[in-house]
Design a protein that fits this description.
2 domains, two-stranded antiparallel sheet, disordered C terminus, 418 residues, single chain, disordered N terminus
Length: 418
């Protein structure tokens, strides 16, 4: 008998949506357990309750919140819905409120996987687009941070993917306005802004940039207004937002805030510390500036989807690796775009899983440090320091290899052949 090799299982539309449904069920099962990063979850609970009880205008005066206003509308809605079940907020330590706070990040994870498929479908086979999307939907790091930890970084990832999709569809103004909103969801939304400018400045008419600037200012003003009012004039919302963002940035003025990047060795050291008379902050910004200039040259020379994918992935990982004041979770913003780039350069799959592993160790370190302090303190400090140095070194290598693909770029063949 002749042995006929079986073709790999093709992921058609039915299997793809079934996979997304299974990923959603897995997320929902995890949020139903009373486990979380309690520092963050307790803050989100307090902010949701304060928003309902104090209203928008009094919120910042009453709360210690360091978030800009956009995501607070989501927390307010969660608080209002929860109030239907617990009118006087007497049982806020139960599972229900915690699970509701995690839901936006959970839905964002599934939405991001769907968008990865939509972004890739015009450029590769449907089967490959679906496979890469499901690889992301079941990524253990993303699943842990959203469904276990309870952080909202996956919401920013979803918005970044949406903006990237709009750019690929040539909807520049919509993408620019979305990025504007991202910045007042979490300031890390700014990480995608350089890509918009560097990939489109030579393609688009000047009036579109003017529309983004005017429309963006109007959007910011409208979203921020309910929190600051007009007591000191029409510019009050802008002044209030600026002070909020400046206060948040200055509060975390450290070389690294538990991020295992090029500054991992200087974790929790103030970034005003100098080396050869230059502060860590300036050195980090200089590195980021050099990376941005290089990617600008690369995007000007390589004006196609493949270059957009690898440049965006490199830029977002670069924002985690190079500047000071980065937190452990900010690596997550690049993972979705590395998953997309796998369709172009299949060999970077090991970079995707490498960052997944190092990112998991990084967030696991922080989770253990703050959630299980007694256990953390029982472990010799030298072990943790060794782990920080090792993982930081691995991340530097992974980032260097990712960056090298833009330096020794060869225009790929049709994506369907990769």
């Amino acid at each position: 008998m002749t042995n006929i090799a079986k073709a790999p299982l093709e992921i058609n539309s039915y299997r793809f949506y079934l996979g997304l449904a299974i990923a959603l069920v897995l997320h929902l099962l995890l949020i139903s357990f009373p486990i979380a990063f309690w520092v963050d979850i307790n803050l989100f609970k307090a902010w949701a309750i304060d928003l309902v009880q104090q209203g928008f205008l009094n919120f910042y005066n009453f709360s210690n919140c360091d978030y800009p206003p956009a995501y607070l509308y989501v927390l307010w809605l969660i608080g209002k819905i929860y109030q239907l079940f617990d009118p006087v907020f007497s049982n806020v330590n139960g599972v229900l409120l915690m699970a509701m706070i995690k839901l936006p990040a959970v839905f964002a994870n599934i939405g991001s996987a769907f968008l990865i498929a939509k972004i890739l479908e015009p450029h590769t086979t449907t089967d490959k687009a679906h496979r890469l999307a499901l690889i992301y939907a079941f990524n253990p790091l993303m699943l842990f941070v959203s469904a276990v930890w309870g952080q909202v970084d996956s919401v920013i990832v979803l918005l970044m993917l949406w903006a990237f999709y709009l750019i690929q569809q040539n909807y520049l103004i919509r993408a620019g306005l979305l990025i504007t909103v991202m910045v007042i969801v979490k300031p890390q939304g700014l990480f995608l802004a350089p890509f918009l400018l560097l990939s489109q400045w030579f393609r688009q008419a000047w009036w579109k940039w003017m529309a983004i600037a005017i429309g963006g200012l109007a959007l910011i003003w409208s979203i921020v207004l309910p929190f600051y009012g007009l007591e000191n004039g029409i510019l009050t919302p802008f002044f209030g937002l600026y002070q909020r963002l400046q206060g948040t940035a200055n509060y975390y003025d450290f070389a690294s805030v538990n991020a295992f990047n090029i500054w991992g060795w200087a974790n929790w050291q103030h970034d005003a510390t100098t080396f050869l008379g230059i502060s860590y902050k300036v050195i980090g910004l200089a590195f980021l500036g050099i990376l941005t200039m290089w990617l600008g040259i690369f995007l000007y020379q390589q004006r196609h989807f493949a270059a957009h994918c690898i440049a965006t992935a490199t830029m977002l990982i670069g924002f985690f690796m190079l500047p000071t004041r980065m937190h452990e979770r900010y690596m997550l913003y690049g993972l979705a775009f590395i998953a997309i780039a796998i369709a172009i350069i299949p060999t970077i799959k090991w970079i995707y899983w490498g960052f997944t592993i190092t990112g998991s160790v990084n967030v696991g370190y922080v989770y253990l440090r703050y959630n299980y302090e007694a256990l953390f303190n029982a472990i010799p400090e030298v072990w943790f320091q060794s782990a920080i140095y090792l993982i930081s070194a691995v991340n530097i290598i992974l980032f260097g290899v990712l960056l090298s693909h833009t330096i020794r770029w060869q225009t790929p063949q049709a994506l369907s052949t990769t």
